[in-house]
Amino acid sequence: QYNDAYPLSNACGQLGQSYQDHRCPEHQRHMECWVDPDMSIRATTHAKWYGAPGPLFCGPKEEYPRTGIWDETYACHNPSADPPETCNAYEDQKAGRYDNSRAVPNRNGRTDVEGCCWWGRGVIQTTGVCHYGKLNYYLGKHAADDGRDSRYPNIDFCKDPGIICSSKQHKELKWIAGMFYWIESLQTYNERGWNYMDELHKFVDGGMSDHSFINAVSGVVNRLCHDPPCASGPVDGAEERADNFKKVLTMLT
């Protein structure tokens, strides 16, 4: 939420982020996706609690001149109304509606959703033009076009980032994308004296009791830095992430 509302322009970025500006480092710029202002996508998945916001969407300003909020308080199921009202934003919806009666900005001031198709998808929420671009560069059509081996030579993750969740043929993509991110971006993280593999060894050798390790990893995954708050803000759900990690670690040990 922002200002007690759910701006629909959160598709562009939440908590002050701008996903289309999540660029690769200079030496990897050739891997990132380009931002197509005409791309129009509606998300496949969404939350399911009572009044939960409908699927995110993006599209050019000609299609969505302005965006407002998701009104979670609206009672959309009203069969006694004339004419009867039903909830139709998503399956099993109980309440809420898209309300574009006025433009409502997200935290970055956006009221449009042009070029904003790079929200998180998959088990670790692949997000931004750099991560989608790397996925395409190593596993998708970009690799095939370059004559390199490609696991998914006919899938262009830059032209259809939503395929991670929408593919019926490759339902494993939501897991593949997450594992790829973990291997390519997290395990190789080495910034300002913090090296993931070195810190992992320290964590294990120290009896896996130093909570600073999981907090740093959460920072890298959620905010692209190991020592949050980063430029994009504090880690979202930091305590919950740490508690879940400890719970799983306890079960496995």
What do these coordinates show?
The protein is mainly alpha-helical. The chain has seven helices and seven strands, in the order E-E-E-E-E-H-H-H-H-E-E-H-H-H. It has a three-stranded antiparallel sheet with strand order 1-4-5, with no helix packed on it. A two-stranded antiparallel sheet has the order 2-3. The radius of gyration is 20 Å and the shape is globular. 33% of the residues are buried.
Write the SSE topology.
Layout: E1 6-7, E2 41-42, E3 57-58, E4 69-71, E5 97-99, H1 128-139, H2 141-145, H3 163-166, H4 173-186, E6 190-191, E7 194-195, H5 196-205, H6 212-223, H7 238-252
Antiparallel strand pairs: 1-4, 2-3, 4-5, 6-7
Brief characterization of the structure:
By secondary structure, the chain is mainly alpha-helical. The chain has seven helices and seven strands.
Estimate the mean pLDDT confidence: 93
Q: Strand content of the residues, in percent?
A: 5-15%
Helix content: 25-40%
Tell me the series of helices and strands, N- to C-terminal: EEEEEHHHHEEHHH
State the shape.
Answer: globular
Structure keywords:
single chain, 253 residues, mainly alpha, 3-stranded antiparallel beta sheet, globular
